[in-house]
Amino acid sequence: MKKLIAMTLLLHTGFTALAFQDKTVPFYVGTQDKGANSSISLCELDLSTGQITLKDTFNNCVGPGYVAISPNKKNLYAVSGDNKITAFAIGQDHKLAYLNSQSSEGMNPCHVAVHSSGKMAFAANYTGGSFSAYTIQADGKVTPPIYTEQYTGTGPNTKRQEKAHAHFASSTPDGKYVYVTDLGSDKVMNYVADIKSGKLAANPAQLFFTGKPGAGPRHLVVHPSGKSLFLLNELDGTVTSCSVDKKGVITAIGTYANVPADFTTPNTNAAIHLHPNGKFVYVSNRGHNSITAYKIKANGELEMTDQQTRSISTPRDFNFDPTGKLMIVANQTTDNLVVYDVDAATGKLTFKHESIGIKTPICVAFY
Length: 367
Fold this sequence. Notes:
Number of helices: 1
Largest sheet: 5 strands, antiparallel
Oligomer: single chain
Distance between the termini: 24 Å
């Protein structure tokens, strides 16, 4: 019966994620806490009640901010305040076991990602303004960097764009291309990935995509179809919808304000995620302290469908459980997690409750 219900849910919602038979789903929280007790937290989300339980903490790296889970679910990778990328093995009980660390080859790594093949990892160094790529070995360990690049360039925002600031890296779903955002120069760097040889090279079809001057591209998400990309611009509070062609070339379609036009308090964006059904994209706003939802239209344009502020305070990150039923918002300034219900048909959010406290949570990664 459970399998029948799960399959029915999958068919009726169109989820690309696997339908879950279990009542609870594990997830990990990375934090910006650089104190003696800085840790990655293992939590469990009850899908029926939305209750979150803290299961364990792992104190193996300093200020383990962003974390990423490998496609095979066997490993977790974290970047840390001591300028490293660290590999962990994920046990059957979802507990983490330290494997090894490598230098991020730059100052203040702020984002980590795993290639869709599971064979490479990426680190973006914000303060250093550089990008590093690593090979992932069969045992999950990361090799020394196989590719590094120091970015240069500036933007019109003299306080935030005085130099290059690499902020995010991700591969396309088919693994052919890798995109890296540089907030400092308003560019998205474009690479071709050769997994067999373990090499990256600049994409000859488009070395980089250039956004609006002063926009400050921070994060992006590529649609599972590989044909659309949504770019979150931190500094001007917008999201840009883009098309992606067969050569990996990014072309802007439209740009949309994430907060009301009459909101005059400074606002910067933090995170962007797709709903598991691929029909909606969401962004978090710091300053306006909200989550904004957009419907993805057939032509790639976006239509705002909802915006919620209740119990949201400097939402550094948020994420959906794999079924798309619930959203967890990580509040950086109030040190807690908040749970929202998600309507998969409309994309609208409904506040559920405030949950457990975690010091300076900045990344939520579901297993």
